[in-house]
């Protein structure tokens, strides 16, 4: 088969690799039908995730058809269409028993495209298949489902729920890439009074407005003045960091009100300064997190019922064989206007 292989920082190739095989009794093998590229994949290629070794197949977001299962798999069988979650769960360790699957200590967590081969390939092995795949409801399209593999539950759990968004809140989302836009989409479920989107790119700000932000601000303007103007000088109730840079994190801590909440979603590859000299007296709560995907069944029900339109986030479509071109388009959003790209089996 062919797969997208990481060759070290800045190096990737679409090349021939051995077909995956069942290794553990709880494994499943899927034919990959639709896959996408994540900003985390770009962080890997940028050298920000050193645990990823050269030779690793990238990718952790896919929809596929089961072609084989190990003898320990009981909930899916060959022929089933499934969502492959970005998080694998052993189901037995302390963290899995608490629903914190992202912190699994039994061989799971975020392993696909990280510590084991991922899903940007024609076929993929999925460990712990019973707990790490979700059969798709009849009528749910691959494109609608694939965004539930990572960015929707990530933004919802790590941004909206960790940030405790409430009706009437002023919510600021710093970064209007796919993660930030998914945060806007899911924050709307809680009826905030205002959603403020901040980004450098006009195209992404317009996408944020389309998805529900009622205030958009260029990062080079004065976001603090805008936020204070709509909050009687207090600042935002919730600020989500969806970029992953020191500057964006520090901006978030200036925009939050006393007693407010900063929810960090972005993947950080460099140290960020925590200005405790300013924050210690302001009762600010800062949360970080890796997605646990406990919300995936709920989000899947909403998508199936037509209550959550994830397809708006897909701007470009490619055959899987054109994944090198798709990476080029996805990595230059300011030039291409790309949000999420979908790659499908021909």
Automatic annotation (TrEMBL):
The protein's name: Zinc-dependent alcohol dehydrogenase family protein
PROSITE patterns noted in UniProt: ADH_ZINC
The family this protein is said to belong to: Belongs to the zinc-containing alcohol dehydrogenase family.
Keywords: Metal-binding, Oxidoreductase, Zinc
Keyword Transcription: no
Names of required cofactors: Zn(2+)
Signal peptide: none
GO molecular function: oxidoreductase activity; zinc ion binding
Domain Enoyl reductase (ER) residues, every copy: 7-343
Keyword Zinc carried by entry: yes
InterPro entries per the UniProt record, alphabetical: ADH-like_C, ADH-like_N, ADH_Zn_CS, ER, GroES-like_sf, NAD(P)-bd_dom_sf
CDD domains: FDH_like_ADH2
Transmembrane segments: none
């Amino acid at each position: 088969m062919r797969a997208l292989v990481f060759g070290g920082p800045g190096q990737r190739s679409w090349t021939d690799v051995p077909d995956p095989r069942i290794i553990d009794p709880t494994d499943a093998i899927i034919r990959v039908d639709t896959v996408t590229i994540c900003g985390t994949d770009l962080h890997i290629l940028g050298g920000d995730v050193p645990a990823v070794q050269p030779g690793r197949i990238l990718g952790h977001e896919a929809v596929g058809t089961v072609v084989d299962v190990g003898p320990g798999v009981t909930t899916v069988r060959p022929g089933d269409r499934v969502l492959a979650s970005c998080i694998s769960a052993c189901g037995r360790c302390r963290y899995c028993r608490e629903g914190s699957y992202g912190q699994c200590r039994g061989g799971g967590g975020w392993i696909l495209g990280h510590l084991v081969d991922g899903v940007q390939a024609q076929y993929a092995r999925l460990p712990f298949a019973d707990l790490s795949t979700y059969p798709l409801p009849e009528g749910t399209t691959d494109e609608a489902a694939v965004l539930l593999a990572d960015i929707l539950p990530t933004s919802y759990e790590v941004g909206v729920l960790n940030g405790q968004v409430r009706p009437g809140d002023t919510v600021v989302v710093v970064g209007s890439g796919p993660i930030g836009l998914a945060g806007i989409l899911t924050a709307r479920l809680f009826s905030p009074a205002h959603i403020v989107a901040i980004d450098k790119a006009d195209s992404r700000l317009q996408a944020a407005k389309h998805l529900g932000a009622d205030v958009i601000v260029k990062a080079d303007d004065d976001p603090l003045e805008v936020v204070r103007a709509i909050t009687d000088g207090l600042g935002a109730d919730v600020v989500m960091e969806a970029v992953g840079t020191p500057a964006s994190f520090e901006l978030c801590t200036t925009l939050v009100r006393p007693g407010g909440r900063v929810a960090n979603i972005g993947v950080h590859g460099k140290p960020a300064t925590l200005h405790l000299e300013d924050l210690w007296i302001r009762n600010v709560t800062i949360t970080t997190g890796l997605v646990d995907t406990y919300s995936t069944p709920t989000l899947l029900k909403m998508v199936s019922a037509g209550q959550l339109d994830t397809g708006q986030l897909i701007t470009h479509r490619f055959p899987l064989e054109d994944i090198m071109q798709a990476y080029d388009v996805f990595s230059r959003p300011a030039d291409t206007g790309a949000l999420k790209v979908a790659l499908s089996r021909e």
